[in-house]
Amino acid sequence: MKQYLIVFFIAAFVSFLMTPLAKKLACKIGAIDIPKDDRRVHKQPIPRMGGLAIYLGFMISVLMTLPVIDKPMMGMFIGGTFIVLMGIVDDLNPLSAKTKLAGQIISALILVYCGLRIGMLNIPFIKEPIVFPTWASVMITIFWVVGITNTLNLIDGLDGLAAGVASIAGASLFYIALVNGRDITPLMTLAIVGACIGFLPYNFNPAKIFMGDTGSLFLGYMLAAISIHGAIKGATAIATIIPVLALGLPIFDTTFAILRRMINGRPIMEPDKGHLHHKLLATGMGQKRTVLVLYGISAIFGASAALISDSTSWDILLIVIATSALMYISVGMQKEVQKQKSTHKE
What angle do CA 65, 70, 75 make, to 5 degrees? Predict the structure, then answer.
């Protein structure tokens, strides 16, 4: 446990110290988020690229504490560095959706080349895991990594939201990896949590700096890679649904966003104001309260994932149903509040 505390505090300390420097660098090179449309919540220009501090916090802490670095971990570090560099470029001059997608696929292929891929899935109610042929394993790994990378990117719409959700998801994956006997995975998840916690004092509302694509793409990529690393040594020990639930809030929000845009005949990568945090803001809640509500929902997903890691198949089904019901009730209550306010105004 001492080693885990060390990696957490190193990551938090480095991230906390580096964030003001990242802010100065962002201002110097012109990485500024200027609100140009009504989709953005902030009203004043704010420097971005704070994700550079998160990256340094993570990398320095794991390199100082990991007892050994094998080829899959090296793939994670190289791929993470590549996606950070792409994020820096994007924070300076926004890249096209196709260019970002290509960069994410390259980062995912780096993992595959280094031996980190989803080779099998363990599904509740099915005793034997489903083993994939190599080509399918590669495609599924790319889909998972690119998908999770984008979920964190899309949910980064309010002060402190992406960093907080990534912290909660990382804490959940830490617990799951720990109880399932992993050794390296808990260290890396705590490094993510620590780096996000060190960044949050500058990023929570009112934010002094945004993490930008530098941070959101990196966090999504690393959480996707770490979740694969945690299961690779024994997929039968962890149900496939666990990492999905641990990252439940951004996954469901992104899924609904894609479906919404497809139904409306809009490009799936086109930004809009239909995300859950926009809906909650529309009820009249302030940024802080909205973010705290979403933290709570994310924590419910994380706790459910932790419970599932040591449950039977029927327990898993009940937990998933209860989690879905809690999220539905929570969002439904906010919509009801909005209706009551509209009726009162009329």
Answer: 100
